[in-house]
Amino acid sequence: MNFKGLVKQIGALTTPNDGKSNLISNNIRSQVANFVMRNNLKSLVLGVSGGLDSACVASLCQQKYSGVPLIGVSIPINSTDDSIEKSIFVCENYCDSFIVFNGWTDILNSESESENQPSAYENLFYQLGLTDKVAEKNGFKIKKYPENILHRDMKSRLRMLSLYDLAKKTNGMVLSANTLSKYNMGFWTKNGDVGDFEPIRNIGKGFELPSIAKNIGIREDIITQSSSKELIVNVSKEKDITVNYKEIDTVMSVYLESCMM
Fold first, then answer.
1. Strand pairing partners for 197?
2. Using CA atoms in the order 235, 238, 241, 242, what is the torsion angle rounded to 10 degrees?
3. N or C end of the chain, less CB within 10 A?
4. How far apart are the first and last CA of the chain?
5. What is the DSSP string of 55-108?
6. What is the mean predicted confidence (pLDDT) over 99-107?
């Protein structure tokens, strides 16, 4: 059997039907509600990118299931209009309140007459570059990373600061939108797109999550879009790793099965 045939076979084994999707969704909702109650939480905070992962978490963790308000936060930093539209749609339909937070990209001094004032994001990016001198002073040769990698990390860290600050102020916790597929690939940022509680941590993104998303009513174009570009500059995650999530889940499924033999 060739690889494409194997992908198809694995998909048939791991794509949940409606009944199983319902069971998975209800189990996730129950776990979230129990965790909220045990820890006396007053809110849930979720960064909403416009991608499939955060859309599913938003739908599954609505107040009618968790018992506490779900606060959605869209933090566009060089985001596309399409991503912003989708994130607002998700927030309006599943969150009890939401904000499009532009604080990091607003200029630092809005009253200045200068047209070249830096945004908070641009200023922080510049300041981090000054740590080169600290490293060099201690005898280290600086390895220059591509700017897109540095931007990727900065964006996720600023989102982390925003979400955790809000969670603290509302006696809540930050929800993670990480999937099993990304976890297995190491394709995630600690406390960037991984929060305090991970509702879909054991869900594969290749076959399982799209089926669950359809079952819980996620908008079709959110389900079928390529993986979110929000933490990467001008490239999709699937392109960044040169394979798609169905192939990733197939490889991991075969690998795990071989480990149990």
1. 175
2. -100
3. C
4. 20
5. HHHHHHT-HHHHSS-EEEEE--SS--HHHHHHHHHHHHHH-SEEEE--TTTSBS
6. 86
